[in-house]
Amino acid sequence: MRLRIAAVYPILWMLIILKQVSGSGVFQLRLKSFRNTQGLLANGNCCGQLRDGRCASSSPCTTFFRICLTHFMADITPNPKCSFATRYTPVLGNNSIDFSKNIHNFTNPMLLPFEFSWPGTFSLIIEAWNDKTRHGPSSGSSHELIMRRAVQGSLSVGVEWVDFNYTSNQTELEYSYRAVCNEHYYGSQCTTICRPRDDQFGHYTCNNNGSMKCLPGWKGHYCQEPVCLPGCHTTQGYCDNPNECKCRLGWKGQYCDECIPHPSCREGTCNKSWECNCIEGWGGLLCNQDLNYCTHHNPCKNAGTCTNTGQGSYTCSCPDGFNGTNCEIEVDNCQHQPCLNHGTCEDTGTGFQCRCAKGYSGKRCGIQAISCDGNPCRNNGKCSNVHGSYLCECQPGFSGANCELEINECLSSPCKNDGRCVDEVNGFRCVCTPGFNGQTCEENVNDCSKNPCLNGGTCTDKVNDFVCRCVPGYVGTLCEVAVNDCEIRPCANGGTCQDRINDFACICALGFTGKDCTTNIDDCAPDPCKYGKCKDLVAGYLCVCDPGYTGHNCDRKEGFTTPRQNKTTTTTSPMAVPNHSNGLKKEKKSLSVVHLGLIICLGAGIPLILIIIAVIVILFRHRQHYFRENMQKEGEQNKINSKCIETDIFTTIPSASASDKITKDELECSNRFNPGQIYDKSAKILKTHKNKIKKKIIKLQ
């Protein structure tokens, strides 16, 4: 695998180099005038008949031209190969030709295109010929040389013409030439490519030097980035087209500098997107809890003191004699018989009330009244004298003989959905739980009223909450996240994926098509093989030619060659002049320099690189084997040395009665160590024994 990867890098390098040196341009040759007043050939003979020692005017030359453009040669050979281009003209006139006039079937200047980087130097050959057939040059026709102009030169790419005037013994030629780049090619060698475009891949034109110039409203290396509306926030806004300012999620305003609070934020503001900063008096995650309920609603009665406890709650501190949530309950009850003057006490559950006997009034029936003079009617009741007594007409919300009883509307539990009822005069008020509102908390607050779901999502209301049902292609609590359909890599065969809304588009690699680039384009569909069978490949095709045919498209017969050019300048033509309806033949295009260089590099370079890599691998393995072999030898030697140290030769003191025999191991150890070395305390005995060992070694050897 590594060898394959290593082999790819030289190929990529060669392709880059070939891409850099390729170019495209045209060498333009403009003929101005040609004069051959005497009608002579280059060898001095007449083009036609000789009459009275002069060339007859009735048979002038029939002149056509051959142009050869080739690489620079210090010495131009008589018949060089035209490596750049070659052109033939039809018969343009007789002895003298004025090219400022229109000439049938001839375009001036003559165009000699090149598909390589312009080298700056060249060789140019201009030849004038006499066609003896007088019908124009054709293959095999007889023609004779009138004039030959061969020059070397250096020429820079540009629009300026370079003028020349050439004079020989018989002729005079005026001409000029220049080299210009083809469309979209620039630079001194026509190698800089710049193709103006205005699409998704760039928006630019080209300068004179071939560099890109962005169209108004675009910027970036390839002019693919739009210039947004001036003032548009750099991070909170963006644009797809020039002078736009589209806001990112959570921002609004002309310049996308205004934040959007959370969609469910009730009483809050924001400093950045999706914040919910509560204004004074409100709290909670979504600022939907009244923190200053006492000030806004004043719920405590009978001079009770209200204290905010947060989250929309409060506490009433009641004065003596009252209790209840809102200090609405009097502590006194009927057990203490509070009603005077035969008044009847009734326990209401939240206090007591007295039904006074006629002629008495007041909270405890302590006020005696037999007429309206004593103002017996309480709570703004309307008093009327009736037959020695009075009658009270109570205001709404009050009852009793003297309108002393307040009707408690909360006894019927009118508040729904766990709402808390607060009794009021002639009515009640419901404190609703979060998510409900209305007079009796009967309405579920529509949390979808602010359209919190983005990108076409459908909002479903719930109790103090909502749920977004997103359209295909979006997800998230608010449908704010676009699904990237390219994450699953749907594009096959090297295709490039572009995400869209609930969809994707594939930019297929060369040779493939289809929604997901799985379809191989049939390059054989137009049947390019003329005499053979076509085999479809990826981004190409292969022609299997019928017997007798060759070429990329099987369009050439095997063994077919064009007539060769001789070196003679008279009689039979040295050139195979092409036959064309207008007298002009374009040579068949052979392999270009780029193609030829690529074939040579791929054919010879890759095997060479593989051989070098193989040699490196073999050397590396050989080095490992040599290292292991040395380690093995060193280990064996260490074993022998250890054995020699442990033998009696060096660890015992030989005695006179010791055996005179010596083993092979002792012999080897004796050769490895210095026999004169003394290991024991008795030096004399060792010295004597050493001499005996030497003698035994001599015998064994």
Automatic annotation (TrEMBL):
Residues 290-328, 330-366, 368-404, 406-442, 444-480, 482-518, 520-555 form the EGF-like domain. It holds the Pfam family MNNL. GO terms for molecular function: calcium ion binding. PROSITE patterns: ASX_HYDROXYL, DSL, EGF_1, EGF_2, EGF_3, EGF_CA. Residues 1-23 form the signal peptide. It is a single-pass type I membrane protein. The chain crosses the membrane at residues 596-620. It is found in: Apical cell membrane; Cytoplasm; Membrane; Secreted. Disulfide bonds join 181-190, 194-206, 214-223, 318-327, 356-365, 394-403, 432-441, 470-479, 508-517, 524-534, 545-554. Keywords: Calcium, Cell membrane, Cytoplasm, Developmental protein, Differentiation, Disulfide bond, EGF-like domain, Glycoprotein, Membrane, Phosphoprotein, Repeat, Secreted, Signal, Transmembrane, Transmembrane helix. Residues 179-223 form the DSL domain. GO terms for cellular component: apical plasma membrane; cytoplasm; extracellular region. The keyword Repressor does not apply. One of its GO terms (biological process) is negative regulation of developmental process. The keyword Disulfide bond applies. Putative Notch ligand involved in the mediation of Notch signaling. This is Delta-like protein. It comes from Euprymna scolopes.
